[in-house]
Recover the amino acids of this structure.
């Protein structure tokens, strides 16, 4: 009896430990894949910096200075050891510390993703709830049609359409979202408008459909049927009974939406030439700047894995049934 009480399972603790371990393993594998994939691309940093007219002697000397003459595995292990200490090395292209290159770009990407989330989540979740309340109405059909339409459209196409309409034809916004050195909030708002609208259009469709599905699955429960038999209005049933019980999946959907925004930011930054982390990563791939590419890949993977972890953890905390160990687990 004492041994059974001592080894009583702790679902939340076990979940956190297992996800942290799996997350660390995933980060190591992702950085290894990014490192090998970038290294296998034609050319290297020396060739990208010196150009096609560089002599073999100059290329060899620059490769030696940059450490590119060392074996690939050795270079990765050296980088990994430094990353574990918080040292991401020096940019092969600019010679600056990678952290100095990354931090301003990371701040720009977080600003763009955060602004997108502020508008996307209320629109998508509110639209999904209204579509569930008015199931079968013209509004529900409109939401379903637009969701399928935008889910089928690639992110870059949405960006280019917005540029053509609002920048080229109407001239309301700049076609390139170059960060202003002066101008304050108004200048930032002007360059962020089209990228944020693109993120909202891309992300709202998936989030809205998931929210609608979560509400409707709760409405199919027996206690909701009993409330309908008692004559309670559908709107009150949703707001007082269905919505609180759908809080767990809606929280998970919201956090996963933010995680997907971080991924979509990469494409949007390229389309609008926005100086964020995604554009930095693509530019660094062109220059074969492995240290910067590695750090960017690590940050993107870390954000995505952390968001997925938080979504599952919040779902477990909000839903008590997920914290109850399976029958016989304590035996």
């Amino acid at each position: 009896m004492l041994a059974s009480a001592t080894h009583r399972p702790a679902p939340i603790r076990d979940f956190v430990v297992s996800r942290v371990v799996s997350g660390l393993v995933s980060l190591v594998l992702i950085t290894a894949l990014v490192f090998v994939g970038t290294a296998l691309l034609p050319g290297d940093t020396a060739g990208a910096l010196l150009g096609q007219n560089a002599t073999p002697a100059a290329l060899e000397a620059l490769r030696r200075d940059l450490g590119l003459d060392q074996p690939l595995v050795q270079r990765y292990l050296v980088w990994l050891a430094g990353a574990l200490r918080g040292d991401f090395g020096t940019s092969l292209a600019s010679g600056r510390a990678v952290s100095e290159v990354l931090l301003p770009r990371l701040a720009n990407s977080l600003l763009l993703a955060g602004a997108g989330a502020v508008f996307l989540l209320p629109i998508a979740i509110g639209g999904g709830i209204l579509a569930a309340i008015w199931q079968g109405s013209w509004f529900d059909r409109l939401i379903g049609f637009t969701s399928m339409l935008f889910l089928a459209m690639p992110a870059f196409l949405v960006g280019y359409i917005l540029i053509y309409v609002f920048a080229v034809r109407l001239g309301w916004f700049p076609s390139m979202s170059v960060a202003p050195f002066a101008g304050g909030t108004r200048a930032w708002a002007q360059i962020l408008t089209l990228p944020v609208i693109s993120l909202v259009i891309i992300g709202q469709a998936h989030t809205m459909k998931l929210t609608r599905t979560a509400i409707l699955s709760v409405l199919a429960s027996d206690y909701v049927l009993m409330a309908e038999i008692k004559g309670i209005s559908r709107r009150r049933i949703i707001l007082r009974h269905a919505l609180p019980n759908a809080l767990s999946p809606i929280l998970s959907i919201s956090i996963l939406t933010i995680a997907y925004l971080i991924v979509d930011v990469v494409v949007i930054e390229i389309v609008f030439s926005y100086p964020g982390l995604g554009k930095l990563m693509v530019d660094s791939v062109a220059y074969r700047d492995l240290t910067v590419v590695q750090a960017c890949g690590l940050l993107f993977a870390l954000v995505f894995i952390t968001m997925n972890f938080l979504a599952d953890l919040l779902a477990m905390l909000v839903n008590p049934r997920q914290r109850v160990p399976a029958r016989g687990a304590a035996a």
Summary: The two ends are 10 Å apart (CA to CA). Residues 91 and 98 are 5 Å apart (CA to CA). Residues 98-323 form a domain with the MetI-like fold fold (CATH 1.10.3720.10). The chain has 14 helices and no strands.
